[in-house]
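Many introductory courses stop at the sequence. We go one step further.
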Amino acid sequence: MIYLDNAATSFPKPPEVIKEMSRCMLEYCGNPGRGSHKLAFAAAEKIYDCRVALTDLFSASAPENVIFCQNATAALNLAIQALARDGAHFICSDMEHNSVRRPLEYLVREKGGSYSIFDSHARDPYRSPAKICRSIASLIRPETVAVISTACPNICSQIMPLDEIGRLCKKHGIFFIVDGAQGAGHFDISMERSNISALALPGHKGLMGPQGSGALIVSDDFPARPLLYGGSGSASLEPNMPLELPERLEAGTLSTPAIVGLEAGIKALRGIGLDKISSHEQMLFSKAQRLLSEIPSVTVYAPRDAGAVISFNISGIPSDRIANLLSERDICVRGGFHCNPFAHAALGSDTSGSVRASFSHFNTADDIYRLAEGVRDIARGKYR
């Protein structure tokens, strides 16, 4: 089996992740903050260790600013709706996933807000951070509360200029929300350097943790407005959620096994090194881009942006059909629109979707040769 669907969820997981999750459920899986006994204390300590690991990895201000969520979608909803008010205006990129688009549409429909879309210049050979920032600046209004940008979209490997966008937001006194779903674990993201106000993360993709893990990391000045209300493990006699982070934004029991698995994934990631992971993925991309582009009926989207994701189509064959045919050869990719109509429109694949192959540190050059061989046979009609 060749697994090239890491943008959906990374696989396989490092052995350390499986081992620590199993150890948690066998040895110390008490309810953190909900007991005065050793198992609850041990679970709480391990959860705090994961907060520290995320703080260090993303240059956040404090472990208490790490809010655990089920996934990046929950984290983005928490961040966006924290800023919702009548008349609030958001700016997002033309590469944003439905995890951003749909919360913004909800605010327009239910909260009287609005949003504008800035140009990522995805197909512009002369693209630059300055061009992208000019597109953002032209959309800023007095009522603008935040700019939202992906670190990297889920159907190509264009890395957004987070440092420059962050400086622009700071200059105009507006918040900067980053969707780190496809960037975290693939290249360096620094909240401090990029002036990021809220960073949404899935644990199960580049961070190599399990599904059901994720986090929102916020800056000290980001408003802490809960989406969920309930038990927090403290201040039980109070009718309202505590004022302090992280308890204010973490109602209910946390998923201790998922969180300790995430910490183990981060340890494995740091043991390999972000630079090594990034260079390996770029090597795989370059091979895939070259081999696929040699097939006459294949179109590769954003071929200049080397990274963990490559998208392509074969003329005359639906992308879902291509993905199914590759699956019959034990090659796992994804076809369709990938929950991202904005990005498909920006790349020119909005009528057909695309086939997406996404890499991880565990993939090899041989995997890429097998992918290209399969695509070549499909393009030649050798699947009938």
